[in-house]
Here is the input.
Amino acid sequence: MSTEIQPFRINVPAAELAHLQDRLANARWAATVPGVGWERGIPLADLRELADYWRIEFDWRAMEAELNRFDQFTTEIDGQRIHFLHVRSSKPDATPLLMSHGFPSSVAEFLHLIEPLTNPAEGPAFHLVVPSLPGYGFSTPLAAPGWSMSRTARAWITLMDRLGYQRYGVHGGDVGGGISGLVAGFAPDNVIGLHVVTDPMTAANVATFLPGMADRLDADNQVDKLILERMQAFTSEGSGYLAIQNSRPQTIGYGLVDSPLLQLAWIAEKFENWTDLPIDRDQLLATVSLYWFTGSGVSAAHTLYEQAHSSDWGAPAAVPHGFAVFGADETVRKLVPAPADAHWTEFERGLHFPAMEAPMELVGDLRAFFGNLR
Here is the structure.
């Protein structure tokens, strides 16, 4: 196995851009039922408008140039091609920070964090390592089954060692938060601190997978009642995307790889449901485009399948913990297993994608947490 690190630049062939334009222009649109809305999925009018913007106004070449402003590389770890951004600060005392995205996301999620974290006017700075998860973006194709969060975490430890970082922080949300926690658990001598973003909706969704959680909650308690209602809503109305990918990733994958309209709808619906602050539409379409051009809709689905069938949850992370809670309410403290001495910050707005919804608030919390850790 080669351990060489190769420079990488994104350069989507012109023929691929033309093919996308053609597919969008000639899409076959599903009929809708009058009077229904988001409760049945992304509405026809909303998807048409977004697809037209993707086809006519979105400038992939400009976004490609924006991504290529940052140094990118590929390497092979455990038989798998891994793509990553490696953006070093000019400050000699900068802290290495490993940042992991989640689903349905990509390295483009962190675009608005890179400059303020690597080159702040004053205060803590960071050397950033931002990998594409195996099966996502340019960390494709999947070379083998088995890429659960724990296997990815072990690959991240290898990556940081290969880059020469022996002490570093880890950050993530969604799947990336789980991977970051596993890195901290597997390599406590290397990780200076674990920083995770969450929100009330995500916390309740995760709680649905915890054995016995519902039985530990009191329906007569107002906070517990709200948690139970959210858990039930996720189970009955919000988890269909996950059930499909956890059970039949290959079947849904044919549609995601063949139809840009399905790939757009599959991702855009989640961003609509999981945000409460405006996000940069071009940044969203950068992620959709990365899935489309790399055909990673199917491989990302396979990694969700792997996690659903994995029993390797690693070890508790015995390192300093930091939590940034967006859209905070009283339920999150009850659901998130934060150590008593954890760094804990609550933000009134933002939800599942704070790097896109409230980037400067997240930058501030990362700097506050990691500023005194070495």
The mean pLDDT is 97. The domain at 41-370 is CATH 3.40.50.1820 (Rossmann fold). The chain has one domain: 41-370.
